[in-house]
Amino acid sequence: MGFDRRFTIGLIAWIGALVTALLACIAAFATPGLGAARIVALAIAAATFAGLWRHVTRTNRTVARFLEAIKFGDTALQFDTQGGAGFGELGASLNEVLGRFRADQDRVAGELRYLDALVDDMPVAVLTVSAGGHVTLANKAARRLFAGEHGTLPEDFASYGATFARRLANGSQGEELLILNIAGRPQRMLVRAATLERLGQRTRAISVQPIQGTLDAVEMAAQTDLVRVLTHEILNSLTPVTSLASTAADLLGDPDLSADPRVGDARAAVETLARRAQGLSNFIEAYRAVAQTPQIKRQTFAARPWADELARIFAAKAPEVPLAVEIVPDGLTLDADPDLLAQVVINLMQNAAQAMHAVDQPRLALRLSGDSKATVIEVEDNGPGVPESLRQDVFLPFFTTRAAGTGVGLNLARQIVIAHGGAIDVTDAPDGGALFRIVL
């Protein structure tokens, strides 16, 4: 690769000018009485030499500026091949290489933007812990899950669970099922941790995946399957018993057999058996509702008129129990099945009224609150409350603590709430009594 023609012509011109200027200087110094001419000749010679030097070193300066720009990541710069800088083929090759490098850089930047968006929008919460112990909420799911958390150290997350905070701090890897206190209630989370290399430093990535809703749905499915099988098998066994008992009662009612008093006793016993078998069949048939998954028909509706209607229904059934309704904000709207959700709330309020039958001054409160993240419905009473040992059992099918209870209401309520993608639990009210909380 040699000099280009423009550079060569320029170089010859500058050398010729310098030679001419030097000859002029020699002539000026050789001729007496030309002091001013000598100064001018020296100035011209110096200027010509400077121009020659600039022309010779121009390519070096251009290359140096080009490499300096690349050093600082400026890939928009083009190698100057104009103005007689020389090495035109070199400049063209460097510009071609730089173009490819810029295209690769744009492709890598686009891939990084895609990966950043993928991580930021993935439904699983991701946290990163630097080598120095700095905790960062790495995506939207993490910022939603740990809403309002501005801490940057593992101990700042102790409010969600001491075990989780230790997991952030101790650098352990693998996966673990933890219970975290999220939105005021315990939830099961699948926590995974892995170690990555980032810019030469070790960084831990921790994913937190809520699985409480999945576990609740699986539990409900298992319960409904169990009830469906049991009711089917029991009804299959009871049907012939009921039929045969009715047939035997009819046969024993034959007047020809009425003379024997033992036949009357036998007929009474068989009729009792038939009635009880039929009653048990009706009882089991009624409980088949537990085995039916609720069909949710979602719609958006205003909370205030919906809650006022529930209050009127409750007042008609239990006028002796005062009900306070609170809605925050006042214009709150709900996204749910209004009929099924009303069934849940009315059931909770009726249970509360029955629990407060021995209370001198019963009080019942229905509170609705919500924001863009969740809606919370609370039913609070000042009755005896629910013992902590029974708080999970009360939602099981057929479990009841009342002599006349069926054990179906709270289980159906839980099924409806879980079908909405929510959760229901019970805890102690601040002033005593029970507090049922629904989070949608």
User: How many individual β-strands?
Assistant: 12
Helix/sheet category: alpha+beta
- Element pattern in H and E: HHHEEHHEEEHHEHEEHEEHEE
| Overall pLDDT confidence | 77
Number of helices: 10
> What order do the strands of the largest sheet run in, or round the barrel if closed?
2-1-5-4-3
Strand content: 15-25%
What is the CATH-assigned architecture of the largest domain?
Answer: 2-Layer Sandwich
Work out the helicity level: 40-55%
Outline the biggest β-sheet: 5 strands, antiparallel
Would you summarize the structure shown here?
The protein contains ten helices and twelve strands.
Describe the 3D structure.
- The chain is of the alpha+beta class.
- It folds into four domains: 5-109, no CATH class; 122-210, Beta-Lactamase; 215-291; 299-439, Heat Shock Protein 90 (2-Layer Sandwich).
- The protein has helices at 5-30, 35-71, 88-121, 140-145, 162-170, 212-252, 261-287, 303-317, 338-355, 409-419, and strands at residues 125-129, 135-137, 174-182, 185-198, 201-210, 299-302, 323-328, 333-336, 364-370, 375-381, 423-428, 434-439.
- α8 packs across α9 (338-355) and α9 runs antiparallel to α10.
- The model has no long low-confidence stretch (mean pLDDT 77).
